[in-house]
Q: What sequence folds into this?
């Protein structure tokens, strides 16, 4: 059973009584998040990410479709009992300290004060706040507040975490700490649903990602699929063209002649007698042939690799395609 | 599971305690309590005399100067005690000019001060009392008791002298309370001793304190509390806070309600501190342990909830702190406006209520609180003013605005002359005069000779033959002469009294001779048995002959601090209903109590008591507008009448039916014991009444009344659902204000429930 299951989810906001205005935020989104995986949700502003999360948490009602968390209908109190949520721009009442804030949010999640006191030390240690736990939160930096938010989300030991921009405003060390925590949660078998603008973070921690664009699901799959497949060229009659990145040394003239049997571009000199080039091939046999030809012309092959694109590139490409 | 909601409430207390404003408010409250802490008082015997004790100083001066001529031995004795200079001062006492200027008033006041000073000095003298001089003076029980006490100290002697002075100059020197209170601020006396008993002071505190606290400290306190707590709900809607709260496994409505309740923590802390402080101060400094005052704590937290429910709904709607405060302010304005409009319409209407009924043969006569006699005009289906001067008609509006009008004296039907008689204010000379109207002249107003002032008159009663008796502090009189004849009556003790020859009144003899002191009231039955309640003493008199009423039985009902009461007599029974609502039934011949005292209407003060002519029915009407009725042999029960709760006056007719005056000017005749309506005297509603009854009253009833909770507190402290306009009440017939103590509670509770219900529906359905 998926930890989060969403099928054909639609949401239309309606405003006004006389002059009714409608805005479609989600247009039939279907996503399954498996237990124990870290799932990232990507999308531009207004893509529908927040709407998606709000439906999962029961903050707003869906217009149609299905959405469930751990088998419970999204928004159901049993589902919310099993979710740890960190909102974007968390605001903690100013009169609370780190400890009393955890007591407050723990009680809201149904924990007794005793249970909170038993758990809070380890959790604050984990997020690196234990030394400031007795200080009022009004003295906390934004990063510390985010970590406190993460701590309160972990306090009642939920099975699913929904984290909205968890590393927003954190310094690199704190981000690393959050990444470590997320991996720890994954190891414990928890499911993490991540909504982040920082694509590098997503790329680093997520197993799978989904890309939303103006309410439509544009991609859902492993990060590797997105980054590798994006490197593939257009399909040909013989199959899919693959881009191969070479780093060569030797005579440039000879090298160009050796690679001439297949299209190549992006010729970049790397130094005297060294250069990088990307060629497009159809089969492994083409690669073997090019290697033979290069060696025959006494060109040294320093690197041979299929070309990878970053998640950011892939994301930009997908969003750009949609725009076109 | 309530843990999450308790956590929200607990957090609110945490927030309140962390608030610097709370510290400021608590410091302010401490300051107020500390300032009030040195206030205390001591109780001492009332001695000496002050300006306010002599309402007409010229009258008193005249009594001394004319002492020998008038054969007033007390005045003669006191005159002899004065020095030559003092005698000269008294002899030269000049009356205030008819049109005095500022200087004249100053001169008069100077004379007044000197006269009072002379008298005050005399009261301190050991030779003030002279047995021979006082031998013909009716002395009160207090005077007799003090006189017989051989071990009187200096203060006791001074008290005796004061009482003797009052006994000798009835109507000229105001009667005083046995004890006075000296208020002090630390070691400093705040003023001269106030002629008020401790019990009366407690009543003043019970009545005044809730109002003062409500309109003073709490008005400011609630405003501060609203300013402090107004941001709570808008802050809750901050997305970074709200989404996290809504993601928790809690009910949205209960979460909101917990926040709402929690926001009252601030007020609760302040209210506990303030009221426990006041309670301790009253108890330790003034000896008044008013435990009921502690009810203010939950009540005023509830008052805050009323305003806060409006602010909360506005905050939900607009998510804006300023707008929520503005909404609460507007709400206060609306409540105040409705209450003010009601009061404005109600004030004059209350005075137009028929407060007494009487029969003049076949005519039904009523009299309003404005002293306006009315006759029911069957043809017109309306009341008709009778026995009213043109000036009184013209000044009706002005009179209706005057507070604390005393109950009217009369009208009473004089069957022998087929006329109505009452005591009215003469617009010609500003004194009280006999006013009459004959049926043959269409009850036309006719002003007669000067009469006793109403504060001296106890009541006017009809003897079995239809003659009119007038009972007063000065004695018992029968109206025998022409009440229209304006001949100047002889002056007795310098007072223009309408005695015997020349006046319409004949003084009757009471055996044994006795003074009737206030609080006093009287009733007579169809056999001529006269029952008088006077300063705690019930006496029954029987008519011995045309000039003598002889005491049949006497009983002291109240030993100390006699309360005002109403009395009725009939069928061999005397019924006495005292201010605290206790009704006593006594045998008319022996004054033995027939049954143990009861309180059918609770501790509420009665406004009248009646016994039917055949003695079979007994009725007590209360200022709450409720009428309790019983057959003599049965138990008291709330009369099963439609008008119950709005009843002003009652009259048993000779035919055995019951006339009930209710609402403003409606009268209904009921058959007994069925309660069947026999006849309605129902005039058309005036525009004001219509607007009040069908416009303002329904709105007011449903509208919350956050500004009226002092009435609930007052009720809890006094257990009385009505409150007198004056603190010193001698006549229970005087109009009292209904507190309706639970009306603010239920109407406000309903309002808060509706507001919170709307909030909950909104928060459940709204997408955030």
A:
């Amino acid at each position: 059973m998926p930890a989060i299951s969403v099928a054909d989810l639609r949401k239309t906001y309606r405003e006004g009584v006389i002059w009714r205005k409608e805005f479609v935020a989600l247009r039939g989104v279907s996503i399954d998040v498996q237990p124990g995986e870290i799932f990232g949700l990507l999308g531009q502003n207004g893509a529908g990410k927040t709407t998606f999360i709000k439906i999962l948490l029961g903050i707003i009602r869906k217009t149609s479709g299905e959405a469930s968390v751990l088998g419970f209908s999204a928004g159901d109190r049993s589902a919310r009992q099993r979710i740890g949520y960190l909102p974007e721009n968390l605001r903690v009442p100013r009169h609370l300290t780190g400890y009393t804030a955890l007591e407050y949010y723990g009680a809201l999640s149904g924990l007794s004060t005793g249970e909170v006191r038993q758990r809070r030390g380890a959790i604050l240690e984990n997020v690196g706040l234990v030394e400031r736990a007795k200080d009022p939160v009004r003295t906390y930096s934004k990063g510390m507040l985010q970590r406190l938010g993460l701590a309160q989300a972990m306090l009642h030991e939920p099975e699913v975490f929904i984290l909205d921009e968890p590393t927003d405003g954190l310094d690199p060390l704190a981000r690393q700490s959050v990444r470590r925590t997320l991996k720890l949660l994954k190891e414990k078998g928890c499911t993490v649903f991540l909504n982040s603008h920082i694509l590098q973070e997503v790329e680093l921690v997520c197993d799978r990602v989904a890309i939303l664009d103006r309410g439509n699901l544009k991609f859902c799959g492993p990060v590797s699929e997105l980054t590798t497949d994006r490197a593939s060229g257009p399909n040909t009659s013989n199959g899919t063209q693959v881009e191969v990145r070479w780093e060569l040394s030797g005579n440039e003239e000879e090298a160009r002649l050796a690679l001439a049997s297949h299209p190549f571009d992006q010729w970049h000199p790397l130094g005297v007698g060294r250069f990088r080039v990307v060629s497009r091939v159809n089969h492994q046999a083409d690669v073997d042939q090019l290697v033979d030809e290069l060696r025959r012309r006494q060109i040294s092959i320093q690197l041979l690799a299929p070309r990878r694109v970053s998640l950011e590139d892939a994301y930009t490409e997908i969003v750009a395609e949609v725009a076109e | 599971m309530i843990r999450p909601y308790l956590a929200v409430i607990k957090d609110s207390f945490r927030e309140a305690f962390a608030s610097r404003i709370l510290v400021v408010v608590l410091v302010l409250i401490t300051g107020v309590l500390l300032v009030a802490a040195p206030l205390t008082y001591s109780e001492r015997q009332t001695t000496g005399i002050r300006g306010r004790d002599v309402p007409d100083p010229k009258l008193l001066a005249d009594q001394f100067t004319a002492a020998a001529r008038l054969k007033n031995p007390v005045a003669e004795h006191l005159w002899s005690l004065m020095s030559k200079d003092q005698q000269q001062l008294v002899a030269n006492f000049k009356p205030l000019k008819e049109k005095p200027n500022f200087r004249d008033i100053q001169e008069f006041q100077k004379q007044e001060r000197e006269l009072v000073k002379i008298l005050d000095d005399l009261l301190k003298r050991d030779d003030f009392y002279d047995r021979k001089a006082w031998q013909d003076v009716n002395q009160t029980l207090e005077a007799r008791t003090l006189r017989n006490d051989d071990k009187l100290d200096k203060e006791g002697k001074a008290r005796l002298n004061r009482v003797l002075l009052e006994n000798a100059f009835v109507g000229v020197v105001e009667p005083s309370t046995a004890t006075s209170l000296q208020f002090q601020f630390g070691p400093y006396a705040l003023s001269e001793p106030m002629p008020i008993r401790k019990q009366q002071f407690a009543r003043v505190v019970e009545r005044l304190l809730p109002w003062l606290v409500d309109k003073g400290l709490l008005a400011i306190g609630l405003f501060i509390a609203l300013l402090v707590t107004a941001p709570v709900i808008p802050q809750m809607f901050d997305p970074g806070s709200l989404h996290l709260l809504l993601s928790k496994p809690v009910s949205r409505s209960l979460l909101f309600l917990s926040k709402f309740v929690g926001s009252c923590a601030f007020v609760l802390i302040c209210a506990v501190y303030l009221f426990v402080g006041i309670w301790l101060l009253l108890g330790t400094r003034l000896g008044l342990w008013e435990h009921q005052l502690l009810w203010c704590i939950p009540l005023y937290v509830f008052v805050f909830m009323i305003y806060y429910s409006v602010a909360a709904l506005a905050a939900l709607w607009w998510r804006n702190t300023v707008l929520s405060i503005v909404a609460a302010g507007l709400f206060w304005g609306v409540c105040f406006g409705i209450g003010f409009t009601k009061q404005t319409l109600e004030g004059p209407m209350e005075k137009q209520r028929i407060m007494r009924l009487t029969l003049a043969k076949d005519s039904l006569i009523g009299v309003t609180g404005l002293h306006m006699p009315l006759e029911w005009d069957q043809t017109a289906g309306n009341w008709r003013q009778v026995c009213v001067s043109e000036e009184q008609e013209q000044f009706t509006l002005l009179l209706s605005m005057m507070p604390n009008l005393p109950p009217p004296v009369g009208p009473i039907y004089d069957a022998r002359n087929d006329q109505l008689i009452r005591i009215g204010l003469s617009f010609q000379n500003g004194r009280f005069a006999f006013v009459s109207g004959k049926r043959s002249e269409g009850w036309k107003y006719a002003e007669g000779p000067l009469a006793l002032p109403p504060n001296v008159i106890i009541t006017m009663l009809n003897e079995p033959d239809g003659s009119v008796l007038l009972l007063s502090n000065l004695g018992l009189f029968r109206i025998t002469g022409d009440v229209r004849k304006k001949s100047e009556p002889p002056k007795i003790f310098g007072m223009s009294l309408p005695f015997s020859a020349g006046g319409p009144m004949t003084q009757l003899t009471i055996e044994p001779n006795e003074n009737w002191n206030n609080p006093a009231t009287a009733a007579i039955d169809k056999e001529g048995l006269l029952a008088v309640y006077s300063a705690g003493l019930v006496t029954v008199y029987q008519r011995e002959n045309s000039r003598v009423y002889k005491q049949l039985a006497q009983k002291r009902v109240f030993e100390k601090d006699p309360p005002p009461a109403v009395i009725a007599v009939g069928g061999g029974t005397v019924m006495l209903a005292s201010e605290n609502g206790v009704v006593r039934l006594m045998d008319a011949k022996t004054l033995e109590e027939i049954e143990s005292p009861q309180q059918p209407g609770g501790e509420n003060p009665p406004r009248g008591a009646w016994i039917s002519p055949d003695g079979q029915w007994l009725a007590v009407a209360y200022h709450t507008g409720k009428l309790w009725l019983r057959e003599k042999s049965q138990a008291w029960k709330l009369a099963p009448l439609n008008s119950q709760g709005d009843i002003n006056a009652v009259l048993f007719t000779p035919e055995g039916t019951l006339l009930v005056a209710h609402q403003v000017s409606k009268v209904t005749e009921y058959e007994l014991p069925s309660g069947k309506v026999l006849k309605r005297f129902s005039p058309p509603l005036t525009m004001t009444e219509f607007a009040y009854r069908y416009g303002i009253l329904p709105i007011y009833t449903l509208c919350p009344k956050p500004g009226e909770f002092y009435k609930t507190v007052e009720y809890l402290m006094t257990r009385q659902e009505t409150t007198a306009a004056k603190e010193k009440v001698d006549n229970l017939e005087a109009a009292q204000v209904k507190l309706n103590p639970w009306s603010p509670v239920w109407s406000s509770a309903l309002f808060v429930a509706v507001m919170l219900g709307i909030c909950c529906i909104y928060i459940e359905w709204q997408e955030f």
The mean pLDDT of chain A is 87. The interface with chain B takes residues 13, 54, 57-61, 77-78, 80-81, 83, 85, 87-93, 95-96, 100, 103-105, 107-112, 149, 152, 162 of chain A (CB under 8 Å).
